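Ticket #4471: structure export looks truncated?
Reporter: QA, pipeline team
Priority: medium

Steps to reproduce: submit the single chain below to the structure queue and open the exported record.
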Amino acid sequence: MIDLYYWTTPNGHKITLFLEEVGLPYTIVPINIGKGDQFQPEFLKIAPNNRIPAIVDRAPADGGEPISVFESGAILLYLADKVGQLIPKEGRGRTEVLQWLFWQMGGLGPMAGQNHHFSHYAPEKIPYAINRYVNETGRLYAVLDKRLRDREFVAGEYSIADIAIYPWIVPYEQQSQKLEDFPQLQRWFEAIKARPATIRAYEKAAAFRDQVLNTEAARQLLFNQSADNVQR
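Actual output as written to the record:
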């Protein structure tokens, strides 16, 4: 039913986590971002921002033609509404989920991503940039830890907000963070890690883990794009 254009990044993991959680049938279409698959014309028709993940729903709720969706947050929201799970349909509960979904999309993801880049991928180690993003990642961890002091999951019940956030916490060591510094976050993290759907999702990712992104060729593809690459 769902074609998932996927690679083993935190944003890619979000969608396998969701699909495994709700049991929606899907097929993985690998997009090897280290080899430039994201720039193939066929993929750009689905994901014009040349980023994974993206999906094609071949059985949309309206019964019409297949629909494609790109951007991980939009995909999670689309799929949650499609199956009526992992987000309330209306009211305050829905607002709670959405604000934490957008917190991840606009905060944790970009900041942790820059943390990864300057700490592990940038050819020049710039102390200011590394400290800036390591500290901001830690601040966001603290925000999440505080949020979880009086609730099991970020919006009360397990939701697409938790699914969006979790894969960005998985590489906490690469982000120079210690989970023991954030006890409520650590409790939340271990609970999600133990979910059967999480285990299945990361087992599927294992098939692609021998692919190395931190090579000169991969870095050129991933980090040296400009407007010229889009316009030509």
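Status: closed, not a bug. The export was complete when the record was re-opened. Leaving a note from the reviewer for reference: The chain has a mean pLDDT of 94.
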